[in-house]
Amino acid sequence: MSSIPIFIREQSSRGADSGAISAEASTNRRSLRLLTYNIQAGIATSHYHHYFIHSWKHVLPCPGRRQNLDRIADLVRHYDIVGLQEADSGSLRSGYINLTEYLANKAGFPHWYDQTNRNFGMFAQHSMGVLSRLRAGEVSEHRLPGMIPGRGALTVRYGNGRDALVLMLVHLALGRRARLRQLGFIGEIAREYRHVIVMGDLNCRSDSPELAHLIDHAGLREPAHDLHTFPSWRPVRNIDHILVSPSIRVDDVSVLNYPLSDHLPIAMEVSLPQEFEPAGRHHPGWDSHAFINARP
After folding, report:
1. 11: pLDDT confidence band, cut at 50, 70 and 90?
2. CB–CB of 158/167 below 8 Å?
3. How are beta strands 111-119 and 30-38 bridged, if at all?
C-alpha cells in the first residue's frame, strides 16, 4: 500500500477567534467537535435547475462565491477539525484562491492541509482539505483505485504510536464497483490504528453493501444512520458520513441546516480515550486552543 507524504501548509494563528475558544479538557475526557462538508467549490445551489443555469460557475469565477465562502467560514469556525470535499486548490473558477487556505484564514484555524485529486491546470483543481486546531504529526495522501483516476484519501495523524488519532478524509466514486475497491483500500489503512475517524462524501447509503464491508473489515461504526444530506434543499439521500472506532465515544451527531452547497454538513462531538496524547505526554495546544464552546 503506497502513501505519499505531503508538505504541511499552515497559516499563522494570529487571526484565530480567541473569544470563542476555551479549555474544556479534563484528565479523563477530551472532546473534539468534528464537521464534514461537501462545499461544491463554494457554489450555492438551492434547486435542481441551478445545476444547469449555474454550470458556468464550475469553470469561471463568480462574484457571489466569496460571499458564500464567508458564510461557510462563519459555520466552520465553531469546530475543531473540519473535512472539506469538492474544494479547489487555486484555479480560474476560484479566482486562483486555495479554498481550504481561504476558509482556514477566515475561520481562524491555525493549521490546514489539502490534497489535489484532479488537476486541470488553470481551469480547475479539484481538492479536499482539512482545517484543524490541533497540529498534525503526519499528513499523507493516497490515490484511491478506480477506472477513472482522481479520487483520493487525505490521512491526518495526531499523536504518535499505537494511541495516535488518525483522521481519514475521503470523497468516493459514483460507481458501486469502484467504491467497493476504494473502501477496501481505506479499510486496510484504518485497520492499522486503534483510534480512527473516517469522514466525507462516500456517495453511498448507510445500508449499502459497500459501507457495511468497510465497517466490518475495519472495525468501525456509524453512530447514527440515515442522516440525509443531499440535496440540501430537500435532503432525501444519506451519502455523507462520519465513522469512528469503538474506542471513540460519540456524544452528539446531527445534520446541520446550512444549505450553502448542494450538500448539508454533518456535525459530531466525540470524546477521545484517556490514553490518547496529541503529541507525547503533553501538548500545550490541547489546553490553550483545542476546544470550542460556541455552537453555530
Report:
1. very low
2. yes
3. unpaired
* Integer CA distances (angstroms), 70 to 79, 232, 258, in order: 15, 18, 13
* Secondary structure letter of residue 154 according to DSSP: E
**Is pLDDT at 122 greater than 90 in this prediction?**
no
Burial of 88 (0-12, 13-18, 19+ CB in 10 A): buried
Kindly report the average pLDDT of the chain as a whole number.
Answer: 80
Strands 195-201 and 165-171: parallel
Cell reading at 160: 504518535
CB contact at 8 A, 99 and 61: no
Q: Could you confirm whether domain 4-8+31-289 is CATH 1.25.40.20?
A: no
Does 211 or 274 have the greater pLDDT score? 211
Buried b (16+ CB within 10 A) or exposed e, 35-50: bbbbbbbbbbbeeeeb
pLDDT, one tens digit per residue, over 230-281 is 999 999 999 999 999 999 999 999 999 999 999 999 999 999 988 777 653 3
Burial of residue 143 (number of CB atoms within 10 Å: 0-12, 13-18, 19+) = middle
Residue that is written with C-alpha cell 484562491 in the block: 97
Residue type, 161: G
For the segment 117-134, the average pLDDT, to the nearest whole number, is: 81
Expressed in angstroms, the distance from the first to the final Cα of the chain is 39
For residue 290, CA distances in Å to 4, 80, 271 come to: 27, 6, 13
**Domain ranges in the chain?**
4-8+31-289
Tens-digit pLDDT profile for residues 129-139: 999 999 999 99
